[in-house]
Design goal:
The chain is built from eleven helices and ten strands. By secondary structure, the protein is α/β, with parallel strands linked by helices. It binds adenosine-5'-triphosphate, magnesium ion and fe (iii) ion. Belongs to the KAE1 / TsaD family.
């Protein structure tokens, strides 16, 4: 089964061809990051326009890189939520048009289900059930992956997502957008125990997260240094902040794996590209006898191959969408 997958939920225009769920025949990503960086974050209207400009050529390239053509594709998959509504609509309209014109089946995919599925691509032995910590630009979810298409969200952020915290703190200390990779790089030169930033926990919700207090506390630290005329060490701030993000993620994920009796733990989403996080998880998992998985860097951030993988497992279970498929910006992981 060869699936043509399309992803336009945020600021990457992406298309891929995936065979039988786990073999990536092509994976084309046009990132708009340089454009949005000028504005310090993603501008939704610009994202939609760029998707419109690029989508056709990205799809053509995905087909030609895979050495295939639309006639030989078995199904069309597309991210229909969550994400920016105008951005999602470009991919959804395109996928519906292709499905209609070719008479091929259409499969709508949840973006976060795609991030989770990215782990299957490079780890042939990984199968549900397992625990997955989704840490992306808009989501921080601790998920029990019961089956390829069945998810139980046992913890979530109450405010900012982990990636969002990276992006906002990066702005506070004068690094550009996107903040994640820049903080990671600077943190390597800093002392992660230099500043005792808070680690929030939520009463009665052991698996929930909160990062807005941490974000404010970094801002307060920087402001008070500036006010006192003290030069603060940016690398120490980056490293101490990064540790304050990693610790709660790690401790909650490990306790969840134990409580739910899971012997495998996976990371998913853009923040899992962070090496400090990967190393901390790898070490702790090893000490606890848990198998650890994380997608490669390119599969961690937005791409269409992960959408093709998720779509395959939906497809073989019989999921088909019609011409009434619509973009759902607030689509829930458990509501499908
Ligand atoms: P969502 O998937 O929740 O809809 P999104 O698609 O915008 O949001 P992703 O593309 O999965 O998010 O990830 C982007 C986020 O990952 C950004 O917040 C970015 O700062 C963060 N990120 C990327 N690389 C790193 C890194 N090396 N360290 C920390 N964070 C990172
Ligand atoms: Mg992005
Ligand atoms: Fe994403």
């Amino acid at each position: 089964i060869d699936i043509l997958a399309i992803e336009t939920s945020c600021d990457e225009t992406a298309a891929a061809v995936v065979r039988n769920g786990r073999t990536v025949l092509s994976n084309v990503i046009y990132s708009q990051i340089d454009i949005h960086a000028l504005y310090g974050g993603v501008v939704p209207e610009i994202a939609s326009r760029k998707h419109m400009e690029k989508i056709n050529q990205i799809i053509r390239k995905a087909l030609s890189d895979a050495g295939t053509s639309l006639e030989d594709i078995d199904a069309i998959a597309v991210t229909y939520g969550p994400g920016l509504v105008g951005a999602l609509l470009v991919g959804v309209a395109e996928a519906k048009a292709i499905a209609f014109a070719t008479g091929k089946p259409l499969v709508g995919v949840h973006h976060i289900e795609g991030h989770i599925a990215a782990n299957y691509i490079e780890n042939p032995e990984l199968e549900p059930p397992f625990i997955c910590l989704v840490v992306s630009g808009g989501h921080t979810h601790l998920v029990v992956v019961r089956d390829y298409d069945r998810f139980e969200v046992i913890g979530r952020t109450r405010d900012d997502a982990a990636g969002e915290a990276f992006d906002k703190v990066a702005r506070t200390i004068g690094l550009g957008y996107p903040g994640g990779p820049k903080i990671e790089k600077l943190a390597r030169e800093g002392n992660g125990s230099a500043i005792p930033f808070p680690r929030a926990s939520i009463d009665g919700a052991p698996y929930d997260f909160s990062f807005s207090g941490l974000k404010s506390s970094v801002l307060n630290y920087v402001n008070s240094c500036n006010m006192k005329g003290i030069e603060f060490n940016r690398a120490d701030v980056a490293a101490s902040f990064q540790n304050a993000v990693i610790e709660p993620l790690l401790s909650r994920a490990i306790s969840a794996a134990k409580e739910y009796g899971m012997d495998s733990l996976a990371l998913a989403g853009g923040v899992s590209a962070n090496n400090a996080i990967r190393e901390a998880f790898a070490k702790e998992c090893e000490e606890n006898g848990i198998r650890f998985y994380a997608p490669s860097l390119i599969m961690s951030t937005d791409n269409a191959a992960m959408i093709g993988t998720a779509a395959y497992y939906e497809y073989i279970k019989g999921r088909r969408d019609g011409n009434d498929l619509n973009a759902v910006p607030g689509l829930k992981l458990e509501s499908r």
